[in-house]
Amino acid sequence: MKERFIKLLFVLSLTLLFAAPVFSLDGTAILKKVDANLQPESFESYRKLINIEPSGAKREFLLYTLKKGDDKIVSLFLSPASEKGRATLRLGDNMWLYIPNVGKAVRITSLQSVVGGVFNNADIMRLDYSVEYNVQNTEDGKSEYVLDLKAKTAAVAYDKLKMWVDKKAVVPTKIECYAATGLLIKTLYFKERKPFEGVSRPSVIETDSPLYKGYQSIIAYANVKKRVVADEVFTLEFLPKIETLR
Description:
By secondary structure, the chain is α+β, with helices and mostly antiparallel strands. The chain has helices at residues 2-18, 27-38, 121-124, 129-132, and strands at residues 43-52, 58-68, 72-79, 87-91, 94-99, 104-108, 133-140, 144-151, 160-166, 172-178, 184-196, 199-208, 216-226. It has a 13-stranded antiparallel sheet with strand order 6-5-4-3-2-1-13-12-11-10-9-8-7.
């Protein structure tokens, strides 16, 4: 009886040793998986951005976007007619807006918004979260992980993020964005998962803000497809020619 008990303990210890969870509570690994599930490393996409005012009035923008690696993203405005041909470029923390009528690109900041509404430029030209944030704390809930993120530099739009991550899909369901003072700036909601490139990704991101009461902004993805283009695409000189890549 004693020998059988010892053998049982031995088998149980081996089971626990080799049956560790996929992520355990490694918040950094979870965050990197979130990035991979939200978007491929290099891709193209079509997005509709909708700004809704308290009166119910809407303004819609259609954007074609290319991203490469972890620090390059460019977007071209396809509509409305008043915005057609405009393009934005982000290289790391640096951002520009190209205006066809002016014929040159002007510097913009992460907290500004080229479309108005609740989304700022950092939201519209988002890099991977693991590029801009460190994980400070990870909570293991019943169906979600909760990650507390801290900006790596002062150039990042939000000083802190609180991210709820669905355990099965490993994608965010909600992100609260905070200033360094602790002020809640906005909340992002990730909805309507669809298969893009074989991965179930949120196709809609909604946001609201206590600073813009009654206003709402939405980004809806029509497509996300892996694509790699030359580095020259992500230059100021190429901004007038983004249309040629569609």
